[in-house]
Specification:
Elements (H helix, E strand, L loop, with lengths): L3 H21 L3 E6 L2 E2 L7 H5 L8 E6 L2 E8 L8 E4 L8 H8 L4
Helix pairs in contact: 1-3
Length: about 100
C-alpha cells in the first residue's frame, strides 16, 4: 500500500485534472472546506491548487454568477477522491475520471 504522502499526490493529480476540465469547459470553481469557501469562484487553476492542502470537501461550480453544479471530494480515497458530482459535469470531468481509473490499490 502506498504511503499517505504518495496517495495525497495522486489525489491532487486527479483533482487538478477535474479542475482543468471544469475550467476548460468554461466554468469557475469555488473550493469549500468545512462549509467555508477557500476562494471566491475563480478560473485560476493555480490559485485553486494552492488550496488542496486544506483538503476541500466540495468544489462548487459556477457559470457566471450562478452555481450550476458541484463535485464532492473525499480525501484518503485515492482513485475514488471524486466521490460524486452533478450529472451536468460528466463531460468536463471525463479526463479526471479516466485518470482516477488508472490508479488501483
Amino acid at each position: 500500500m502506498a504511503s499517505r504522502k504518495l496517495e495525497f499526490e495522486l489525489e491532487k493529480r486527479i483533482v487538478n485534472a477535474a479542475v482543468h476540465g471544469l475550467l476548460k469547459a468554461g466554468y469557475s470553481v469555488e473550493p469549500i472546506s468545512q462549509n467555508e469557501p477557500l476562494l471566491i469562484p475563480t478560473r485560476n487553476q493555480q490559485a485553486i491548487a494552492t488550496k488542496f492542502q486544506d483538503e476541500p470537501e466540495w468544489l462548487r461550480v459556477y457559470r457566471g454568477p450562478e452555481q450550476v453544479g458541484w463535485v464532492r471530494l473525499v480525501w484518503g480515497n485515492v482513485q475514488d477522491i471524486i466521490s460524486d458530482y452533478t450529472v451536468n459535469l460528466e463531460g468536463a470531468l471525463s479526463d479526471a475520471n479516466k485518470l482516477a481509473a488508472t490508479y488501483s490499490d
